[in-house]
Structure formats: structure tokens, C-alpha cells
Predict the 3D structure of the following.
Amino acid sequence: MSFSLNDLFYDSLEEISENTLEEHIVSLYSTRNKDNQNLGYISRSQRTVEVSIPLMKSLISNISLAGSENSNLHKYGRFRKNRLVKRTRRMNTYVQVQDEYSDESIQLSVQQSLEMLNSETESSTTGAVLWQVSLLFAEWILTPNSLFYELFFQRTFTDSCSNDTSNGASRICYPKIIELGAGVSGLLACSLSLGLLVPPSENVETGSVISPGTYIATDQDHIIPLLKKNISKNISAIESLVHERHKSVNLLSSDTIEFVVGDNNRISCKRTDSTNKICIDSSIEVIPLDWERASQDVTDLKSAIFQNIHDGQEEEFDIILACDTIYNDYLIDPFVRTIKMLAGPKTSVIIGIQMRSHDVLEQFLNRSLEVGFRIWSVKGESLSEKMRDGFAVYYMRIQDCRESD
């Protein structure tokens, strides 16, 4: 699955180079730096944090149409006061269309570890609580007109997703996503995996081959147990939403949708047809990944996730995602090296940050450029209103990406 920069509304991105990096930092912190912010946590005193992610009406209605030719969500561009804004590329104009928040939302209950947060023995404690940027990022992505919505929710229909498609059947490819530094909350895993856990609609071509999606949440070993627990507990919110929406798809009476939590907390969504053939088996997985020993961890992870080799080439992730992982200059080199090891030629890297130290951010961007990434900053007007002050989002691809790929 690949997306060109034109698909991602190129005019909403501003490229950063070595020559423009310093200017970018100065402009960013002079125009979008919000004063008097706390460190960015939701709460550092509550053991359980209840969060609600509102959903737009168009998202609710299109969950049932996901993957079908009736879905037109890719035509929408910028965020204008809770309404979709339709983009006409050739005229470069925007037309407001009706779309507002629905009465439905994703309700999540996140268990935090105050003991870990205040620990003097753990090497990393920041992942013990839920951070604000993750919640705001999820709300933004789940808005159908957001810049990167299409990456997470648009299936790819192709005859050549891999070379094992037989009998001329088309292939439906769901995205493969990996999150770095997920923390204990599992908020992004539960909310952003919605697209890959929704079965195709009933008008998908008979005999189509499904390439299932995967959302992999990673962090250090001591984070993993509570991360698994939170995802297992909160996946019911997604399950309920999917089941409710698919009542309107007129599934055959013999069709079933089943969410299964495996022994190792591999959470899968299976749709079975009248012949008991599994049509989709996407999953959420929790896997340890320590950036400081990433060489071995990445090798093990890829071996476990990518078991098929197509055309002599190893499969790659469609999206690498990280939120609020840039705060310590000591971790920048390991973090950037890890991204580089995971990224393929068509991988989209999306980094969400809360603006704190401009020196640390500049060091991260500079190091990413040095190792061969192209970097774009998402313009403020393309972010949600809540993210325009004090937050920034970056899009990265390895150096040889082109607009036409």
C-alpha cells in the first residue's frame, strides 16, 4: 500500500531541508508555541483516566461502506469548524459541505501506573501515563477530512498487491501500522485500528483476496504488561461500534463478526461467510521494542510479522507512528535509527509532538535529515483547532520517495 505526496494534499505540507531547518524552528515557536502548558500529561494523580473520542457523522456512516466504491472520504481536505471541506485540486478551492459530530464516540478507560511514573529504578517512566498529544492526535486522525485519514482508513484495491493472487482475483490490502513508544494507554492502538478492524462491505467482489492489516504497539519490556491490559479492556469499545454499524450492511444471516483476544493478546477481527471461509483476520499486537537495542528487536519483530516474501522483496510497514517521543536528546539517535531500520521505500512516518524544547526538536529533525529522510511539517491550518497551538506533526519518507511513486 503506497500513497503519493499528491494523495496526501501536498499543499498542506511544508518541506524542511538543512537550509530551512533553523527558519522553520524559529517560525514554529514564534507563531504556534502555547505559553504556560504543563508537561502534557492528562493526569499524574489518577490511576484510571476516562477519555472520550467524538466521531463525525461521516465516519459513522462510512464505517459500513468502508472499502467500497461508495466511500468518497478521500476527496476531503482541510478542517473548518467541525465540518468537512471538499477540495477541488485543479481549482485549488474549498467548498464547505455538511458534516458534524455524531452522538457516538469511542469511550476508553485507561489504567495508569503511578508507581512506575514515580519510580527511581526504571530507566523510562514517561510511558506510565496518558499524554495529551495522543488524545488530540487520535481525534484529529479520526476526522474524515484530516490530512492522514486516508492512510489509516482507505483500503487499497489492486490486482497486484503481491504475486500470489490467483485466478485473476483482486486483492484488498489493509494497512500495516507500527507505533513506537506506545506507553501504557493503548489509546492509539484501540482508536486508530478501527479502519483495519472493519470488515469489507457486502459489495466487495466475490473471490477477492484479503491482505489483512496489523497494528503493532511497541514499547520497552516494563511497559508491555499494562499496555496489553489496557488494549484488551478497551477493544470492546471498538467491537461495539463495529457490530452496531454493520447491522445496516445487510450481512447474510450466516455471516458473523467475531473479536478474539488470543493467549498473547493478539486481538483479531474475523468475518466468516456462509462457507466458513475467513474473509479478514486483521489484528492488534503488542511487542517489546527498545530503541537502544533496536537492531536485534527489529530483526525479531520483522521475522514475526512478515512471514511472506513477495517478488524477492521483504514486506514493509505502511505507517510508522509515534506521539510525544521527542523530549530527551539522549534518545534521539536510537529513536531515529529505529525508524530508519523499520521504514521501507513506501513507508509513511508520522510523528506527533508537543512543543517543548526547540533545541531537542531541532536536533531530531537535523538527525533525521542526516540519515536520509525527507521531512515535511503539517501546516497549522491543516491541523485541528486544538492542535494548532503547542503541537506539531511531521511527515517523513526515506530520501528516494517521489511525488509520482
Q: What stands out?
A: Residues 324 and 353 are 5 Å apart (CA to CA). DSSP finds eleven helices and 20 strands in the chain. Confidence is low (pLDDT under 50) at residues 64-98, 248-254, 308-313.
